[in-house]
Design a protein that fits this description.
CATH topology: Rossmann fold
Oligomer: single chain
Mean pLDDT: 81
Radius of gyration: 13 Å
Order of helices and strands: EHEHEEEHEHEH
Number of domains: 1
Distance between the termini: 15 Å
CATH architecture: 3-Layer(aba) Sandwich
Strand order of the largest sheet: 2-1-3-6-7
Structural class: alpha/beta
Strand content: 25-35%
Shape: globular
């Protein structure tokens, strides 16, 4: 079984912890790292090369859409893809080419998207 390597960028520690707990119960998904800011996220994505980068669209003092675009641009040779989390449907999120999920979506939906 091939592991789906996931990296999480979210400024809410409780959200990071909760998603981490859920992902740790999945035999085919590995949370390889998590962080709350752009600079470290870019460094760690380069180092860890996850298959999926799960990014909160609204970070304190930063913009998840910009982070997602920067990851896509900087690591265009990487097979990783970005998945943005947002509170509501936003055209700008769709325009990044990234997949996106609404915050509060069922865990089953999150896991399904990670696996797709």
């Amino acid at each position: 079984m091939k592991l789906i390597r996931v990296f999480l960028v979210d400024d809410d520690e409780a959200v990071r912890d909760g998603i981490g707990v859920v992902l740790s119960t999945q035999p085919d998904i590995e949370l390889v790292g998590e962080i709350d800011n752009r600079a470290e996220a870019l460094h760690l994505v380069e180092e860890l090369r996850p298959a999926v980068v799960l990014v909160d669209i609204r970070l304190t003092g930063d913009d998840g859409i910009d982070i997602s675009k920067e990851i896509s641009s900087k690591f265009s040779d990487s097979p990783s893809r970005n998945l943005l989390r947002t509170r509501r449907w936003e055209q700008e999120a769709v325009s990044t080419g990234s997949a996106f999920l609404l915050k509060g979506c069922p865990i089953k939906e999150l896991l399904s998207v990670l696996r797709s």
